[in-house]
Amino acid sequence: MFPTEEVVNLSRLQFGLTAMYHFLFVPLTLGLGLLLAIMESVYVMTGKEIYKDMTRFWGMLFGINFAMGVATGLPLEFQFGTNWAYYSHYVGDVFGVPLALEGLIAFFLEATLVGLFFFGWNRLTKVQHLTVTWLVALGANFSALFILVANGWMQHPVGAEFNYETMRMELKSFTEVFFNPVAQVKFVHTVSAGYVTGAMFVLGISAYYLLKGRDRAFAIRSFAVAAGFGLASALSVMVLGDESGYELGDVQKTKLAAIEAEWETHKAPAAFTVFGLPNQEKQTTEYAIKVPYVLGLIATRSVDKEVVGLKDLMARHEQRIRRGMIAYEALQKLRGGDESQPVQDTFELHKVDLGYALLLKRYTPNVVDATEAQIQQAVKDTIPHVATLYWSFRVMVGIGFLMLFIFVAAFYFTAVRSAWNQRWLLRLALYSIPLPWIAAEMGWIVAEYGRQPWTIAEVLPTFLSSSSLEASNVYVSLAAFVVFYTALLIAELYLVFKYARLGPSSLHTGRYHFEQRGRGTRSKEGAP
Amino acid sequence: MILDYETLKIIWWLFVGLLLIGFVLTAGFDLGIGTLLPFLGKKDEERRVIINTIGATWEGNQVWLVLGAGAVFAAWPLIYAAAFSGFYAAMLLALFALVIRPGGFAYRSKLSDPRWRSLWDWALFVGGVVPALIFGVAFGNLLQGVPFHYDDTLRSFYTGSFFALFNPFALLAGIVSVAMLVMHGGIFLQIRTEGEINARAKRAVMIFSGLFVVALALAGLWVAFGIDGYRVISMPDPNSSFTPLEKTVDKVTGAWLVNYRLYPWTVLAPVAGFAGAIIAWFLSQRNQAGSAFIASSLSLTGVVLTTGFAMFPFMMPSSSHPGHSLTVWDGVSSHLTLSWMFWATVVFLPVIIAYTSWVFRVLRGKVTVEDIRKDEHSAY
Q1: Do B68 and B23 touch, CB atoms closer than 8 A?
Q2: A375, A324 in Cβ contact below 8 A?
Q3: Each residue of B128-167: pLDDT tens digit?
Q4: What is the mean pLDDT of residues A245-265?
Q5: Which of A27, A428, B49, B219 is disulfide-compatible with A194, CB 3.0–4.6 A?
Q6: Which residue of chain A is at minimal alpha-carbon distance from B243?
Q7: Contact between chains at A82 and B63 (C-beta distance less than 8 A)
Q8: Quick one: pLDDT at residue A528?
């Protein structure tokens, strides 16, 4: 028996919520970490105190954010075991490796040195401290690399093979897993998005000081660093967007077709649907407005390769389900002790499709006795909910273009030395602070919701992956997560707002706005 | 793959032990100090002194837990799956306690409202004592065996209840764990503080090292006479790959002592556990905190090894279906995965130890009330 649908859905909700919550903090750590390293490099090279103040002030906000990143990362690593035990058994041999390496090579470095970033200013030489800051930023980026190698393997599981004796996927080539092209483009795309987040954060808050006419020297320099870094990062997110990873593997192709609500395969180059209302029932997109050539260029980087439509993909999936049933029958014989050569050969020949047969378990536990109607049901399950992907992707891309515009404008006006007079731009930058987070969360919805019905693409369906738990247990843990995480988020945001408003005066150097003209350093403005 | 499968299985059993020892020796004193915080720090400044003795290093220390979980996932996926889902409610309880802990360091002193600060002090206390207790309880359950079994697709089913996890022996193991980590934390505080707090820490070490020795002795007697150990009757070649469904196991009282009889040198582990604690107590009372810390580290290492040696080759015995128990031979990853992870660990673990030692050296020295006053705005 496998777990009830209720347990699976609750576990999905819990994992989705905790992962999205974790990713409120990760991108800022990635981006701000690197910005701190850049600012401190300028300090060490020029010896100008103001860059040290910048590093320390933005570093304080980094610290408030980092604490939550650490706190919320832990439940993610444990949840594979607590809620997704069958998944852990089935793919731990492969998936566990990048997770363990993340701890060993990346996170250990980052977490051990981050304390020295905050408390090492008077105990280290300038160059030592700068090295620490760079290593923290590097650790965060390596951390993202290994996590995305793990995640990329879920989308496109290369370098592994099913072993019928141990009933699990086993590692065949670590280099294939590590250099998985899907993982590599995902990594570049995700860390670039993190850099954009860091840049938008610094740009928006610096704009606030400029609007208020406070701490101008500090704000202008911060604004300039963020504008340059942000422009480069925004271009990187877009140009190196992970569309190119969508050519690989069945599930990635399905995701791409769903993002574009492409039900039919059209002749190359495919047109891009700017607007439309995808209808899952009728398998069509209503009121579609299309721009020729664009999708082909985005998705295949060519004008002669076609983008396969959902209906054709489903037809392929149906064949794979039928071949998978043959593999499943052979597997039953092998597990039952009949390890004769013909059975082995049959299994070897069809085992790449075994995962598709497992989709039938939802309707018939024996798989091999599936009726025609059940097979058709399973085929329908092989594509994700199209409208969700279609719209999440468009929100993400739309925000991406808006942010690119802001960074271009910020960079231009900084270059001509008048950014601080463009109040419209400063206001736009300030109110745009939440945008990178929305875009990033939408991106994860596209990537992970779009992976459904699989946890491991083409290998293991989601509904088979969870632990054998009682639903009541998961209700309680889910409720507790919501309560704890909401409370922590309120505390975090309160501190971020408070210290962002206070600005560099919170460093108590005596050089900044609230510390001058008899305003007092602590009583009124409330820095502890 | 220079090393054969059987050897790598044993090496990975040792590595997980090593990571666990890394965790108790470093994050262990953080948890112990969190537990002591409300009792040793009477005034806000004193509590800040205590928090700042570990404020810059607790994050790195906690990675031993992260890495430990990751390593179990990669090298012992069946154990990761069965244990974490079986102990579901307890695991999540420990996680929630750890989730509220970081704010106790990074947020607590960023506002001056005493209610805010007191809230985070409680978070540090809960974030210390609850995980310490639950990790002990988990090992108490592993020693007794856990009611779980597999179906033929190797899906695991836990058939016990949440409250069954908190049985008397497991609670005793929880007390052993809390007492030993508090002892360790108290000694660390002695090293890094002076005056009143130092004196209170010394008193805590006296109390908790005593409690620890008594609880450990009781647990030892209980293991010898009160609970069943497990013994493998038959299984396939340990150098081959096989599932937990292919062996036979029976339960025997006193089976957890068999390894000590077969390999008498293993008795050094429990000896270190007791002797280390007694020496730590003695040195702590004579204000030789540095040496006491080495002794208590020896003691903690001894306790981890004692459990490992007693259970070998079992890692997670099944009380309801002993044959399905997870052992060093069948709870494990494939040969290739173990091999890759082995080389990665051999290269990177020494690097970790090197930079961690450097960080502790840079940050060494006493934390005083004067330091807190001087760095009022930047200290935790």
Answers
A1: yes
A2: no
A3: 999 999 999 999 999 999 999 999 899 999 998 888 899 9
A4: 84
A5: A27
A6: A166
A7: no
A8: 43
Residue B20 distance to chain A (closest CA, Å)? 14
Give the pLDDT confidence of A327-352 residue by residue, as tens digits: 999 999 999 989 999 999 999 999 99
Structural contact between residues A449 and A243, judged by C-beta atoms closer than 8 angstroms = no
Q: DSSP labels for A12-72? A: HHHHHHHHHHHHHHHHHHHHHHHHHHHHHHHHHHH--HHHHHHHHHHHHHHHHHHHHHHHH
Query: Is pLDDT above 60 for A360?
Result: yes
Residues above pLDDT 70, as percent of chain B: 100
pLDDT tens by residue, B44-67: 999 999 999 999 999 999 999 999
Using CA atoms, how far apart are residues B137 and B157, in angstroms rounded to an integer? 20
Say yes or no for a CB contact (<8 Å) between B84 and A93. no
Task: Give the residues across from A460 on adjacent strands.
Answer: A456
Check whether B319 has a pLDDT greater than 60: yes
What is the DSSP annotation of A328-374? HHHHHHHHTT---HHHHHHHHHHGGGHHHHHGGGGT-TTSTT--HHH
Per-residue pLDDT, A525: 42
Q: What is the pTM of this model?
A: 0.94
Q: How far is A527 from chain B (nearest CA, A)?
A: 7
Instruction: Please give the single-letter amino acid code of residue B20.
Output: L
Strands A460-461 and B148-150: unpaired
Could you tell me if residue A96 is left (phi over 0), alpha (psi between -120 and 50 degrees) or otherwise beta?
Answer: alpha
A343 CB within 8 Å of a chain B CB: no
ipTM summary value = 0.94
Number of neighbouring beta carbons within 10 Å of residue A200: 29
In this structure, is the dihedral angle defined by the CA atoms of residues B102, B105, B110 and B116, taken in order, positive or negative?
A: positive
Looking at residue A205, what is its pLDDT?
97
Size of interface A-B (CB pairs under 8 A): 259
B350-361 pLDDT, tens digit per residue, is 999 999 999 999
User: What is the rounded distance in angstroms from the CA atom of residue B244 to the CA atom of residue A456?
Assistant: 24
Under 8 Å between Cβ of B27 and B65? yes
Chain B stretch 222-241, residues whose beta carbon is closer than 8 A to a beta carbon of chain A = 241
Cα dist from A260 to A6, A190, A394, whole Å: 31, 21, 9
Strand boundaries in A110-211, DSSP class E: 160-163, 168-171
- Residue ranges of B 90-109 with Cβ closer than 8 A to chain A: 91-92, 95-96, 98-103, 105-107, 109
Whether chain A has a CB inside 8 Å of the CB on B263: the answer is no
CB contact (8 A) between residue B77 and residue A88: yes
Are the C-beta atoms of A69 and A124 separated by less than 8 Å?
no
A189 touches A242 (CB < 8 A):
yes
